[in-house]
Design a protein that fits this description.
Blueprint lengths: L7 E4 L8 H18 L6 H15 L6 H10 L4 H18 L6 H10 L3 E5 L4 H10 L8 E3 L1 H4 L6 H11 L6 E5 L2 H9 L4 E5 L11 H6 L1 H4 L4 E3 L4 H9 L5
Parallel strand pairs: 1-2, 1-4, 2-3, 4-5, 5-6
Helix pairs in contact: 1-2, 1-4, 2-3
Length: 245
């Protein structure tokens, strides 16, 4: 194998390696059905809208969403309803969380070819590790950096710097691939890391403000590469390495 320019790949996790928003939404819908079966006096459509309103206020990883939702709608927590929602949510989530097509092939190829690999995620540490282990990826990555590890969220440079330091590479020897332009692309680009926008994972959550969606466009346009399938990452690496993958 010839001398390579690129020595490491940094991955975002949610909506880059796995279709997190699809799994999240299916889990929320299952939880809503469970609460309605327990007597929730709302339509599924309205409950869906109000739950996402809470996520917009607190962030998509907010762990007490159903507690807050029930307090908001019922004036207090009905624990039978809460338990039914949590059980249904977890069952649906575990069945829905899958890797994007070709993810296993790409990761195995990178391992075989000796690339350093890391995950940089804004999600809580334990939730990230649950997802990684559920997907069978816990032996693929040299390092995993979460908000709990870095104390900062993308596009802050701290998570990217930590990844570079631990992978022992310079910015121009690394590639960052992620779906969220203003966080993944801008944060990595500003440090001089090669950037790949995973356009296939750029799915906005329901009810997102159209202005917020539009605000992502300028950041997306700064990506060095754009891919519509994870397998295209191998072509990007081949190009950056001048054919010496």
């Amino acid at each position: 194998m010839g001398q390579r320019t690129i020595k490491a790949v940094i991955f975002d996790l949610d909506n880059t390696l796995t279709d997190f928003m699809r799994a999240k939404d299916e889990a929320i819908l299952a939880a809503i059905d469970a609460m309605i079966d327990c007597g929730l006096p709302l339509s599924a459509r309205e409950a869906h809208r109000r739950i996402y309103g809470i996520y917009q206020d607190e962030g998509i990883e907010y762990q007490r969403v159903f507690d807050r939702f029930l307090k908001q709608e019922l004036g207090g927590v009905d624990f039978r309803m809460l338990a039914a929602a949590v059980v249904a949510y977890r069952r649906a989530r575990d069945g829905s969380l899958v890797l994007y097509p070709h993810a296993t092939m790409v990761l195995n190829r990178l391992l075989r070819d000796g690339y350093g690999m890391a995950v940089v995620s804004d999600a809580p540490r334990f939730e990230v590790w649950l997802r990684i282990c559920r997907l069978g990826l816990h032996h693929h990555f040299d390092h995993v950096f979460t908000h709990d590890d870095t104390g900062a969220r993308k596009p802050d440079p701290a998570p990217f710097r930590m990844a570079l330091e631990q992978l022992a590479v310079s910015p121009d020897e690394a590639v960052m691939i992620g779906d969220w332009p203003s966080r993944d692309i801008t944060g990595a680009r500003d440090l001089g890391i090669h950037t790949v926008w995973a356009r296939y994972g750029d799915a906005s959550p329901p009810y997102k403000d159209p202005a917020a969606i539009a605000a992502e466009v300028p950041h997306a346009e700064t990506a060095e590469f754009i891919v519509d399938d994870l397998s295209q990452l191998l072509d990007v690496l081949d190009e950056l390495n001048g054919g010496a993958r």
